[in-house]
Amino acid sequence: MARAVTTQRKTINTIAAWAVGLLIFFPILWTILTSFKTEAQAINDPPLFLFFDWTLENYAVVQERSDYMRFLWNSIIIAGGSTLLGIIIAVPAAWSMAFVPSRRTKDILLWMLSTKMLPAVGVLYPIYLLFIQFGLLDTRIGLVIVIMLINLPIIVWMLYTYFREIPGEILEAARMDGASLREEILYVLTPMAVPGIASTLLLNFILAWNEAFWTLNLTAAKAAPLTAFIASYSSPEGLFYAKLSAASTMAIAPILILGWFSQKQLVRGLTFGAVK
Amino acid sequence: MGRIVLEKVKKSFGEVTVIPPLDLEIEDGEFVVFVGPSGCGKSTLLRLIAGLEDVSDGVIRIDGADATQVPPAKRGLAMVFQSYALYPHMSVRKNIAFPLRMAKLDQAEIDKRVNNAASVLNLSDYLDRRPGQLSGGQRQRVAIGRAIVREPAAFLFDEPLSNLDAALRAGMRLDLSELHKRLNTTMIYVTHDQVEAMTMADKIVVLRAGNIEQVGSPLELYRTPRNVFVAGFIGSPKMNMIEGAEAQKHGAHTLGIRPEHIDVVADGGVWQGRVGVAEHLGSDTFFHIHDTGLAEILTVRAPGEVDFRHGDRIGLSPREDQFHRFDAEGLRIG
Asked: CA A264, A269, A270 angle in degrees (round to 5)?
């Protein structure tokens, strides 16, 4: 029997969901609001919510002081490059784990995931030394590689779960129908996995976009993405909250818009194929 | 052409041997049914022939050529899967055309063959639909269409009717038999349903635990089962198996008599008993007889108009020329 849901209950649920949603969104909203205040209003006590003199001054200053487009471009290259490279490496890996598993497949998957539990700072030193050795410090290619490696376990896991939903008999049918391995992956597996691949791409692009630890530690000027752009507006003295907020708003705006337009795909991605 | 020969074919998964070395010859144009209980290795055997599993040992020949190491795509066989395994992202037309596209045929030829197959299978009106928009029976026909357009050396069917309801199944059984008569191509069909085996096969291969128990035409298997297992598996309702003194009287360890070979009389007869459950099918009635003095409950098939009720006394006279005698190992005597 279906559980009866009364209108009253629905209303309460809706209100609760909106409350939680707003709570989560509040810091972002506050950042955006602060970016339109003057530095003095930004630290006003009590805090000003909507009734202040709206100004674009901070944006003008940020625009003047640094080259936003360069940071943006670096972010796109690093997030996009690491995601694409990760997918290219992960598709064959996930294919073999999903369709020709060995006795150790489960162990390998768990081991891969366990690397995500390692505190990043624990390997900062060796990676930093490697970067010096290979001349990768402050290069986009270096960051593409590091961030790809960091997200690879998640990419493989996500693709693995999506591939597992595809019945093996359909791939066998393709084999019987005369498809080579390449044709099988190209004409049958990939089209069937498109929703999964798309949400994997999206989620990892966002993760890479927001990655701050490695981008801040391994870049200086040339390869610095938007995370570094934000950080450059924090300073040990003086008033900087409003300008920092303006920089943050500019940095998160592209990803926020991307996320807004791909909500459906993202939800599917985050539920890891648990619901069909 | 589609003559398939298995020579000492063996399959093991790690330590477990699913199919001990086995020999089998399938002639060109034959309708062969592999039948046996779940887990008897019949699907594995089919997958070995298809090339979807590698043999652990032995040789598979297709039309004389050694195909043991040939990948499935190159064996020239078409397969219909239990789940139909249609490509969900393609229209019916593209599904049926897929093997032709893989074979790099030109578009005109592809269209001709697809339209042809669609009209034979009554799918012409559904060519632009996706598999998700079709009923079970229609999906089944698409799967068959995808197999026939290739004009393969042989068709492999892996329990293709088990997802259909009873009425549809009977219809499809007929359609498949007709298809076989028309195409005259080798067909290998796996099922656990002995009715499908009996009605469609030229040759039945009865399997148990990976071993071939008997190979023969449906009537051979029905009339002269080689052992107790085949005797019990072929025929419905199952053959009565009588052990003990009654069997010894006829010089056997186990005495088999089919329900349809026992006549019912009001009194007298060789065995007397009491009617337990009576299953009325209309045309026939199956009586389950208790208290005959034998250890076993006997099943008897009588014409539908024979009227006995639960608890009635009943006399049974088996036709002695229809007795099957088996020795202590379960093998047929004589």
From this structure: 100
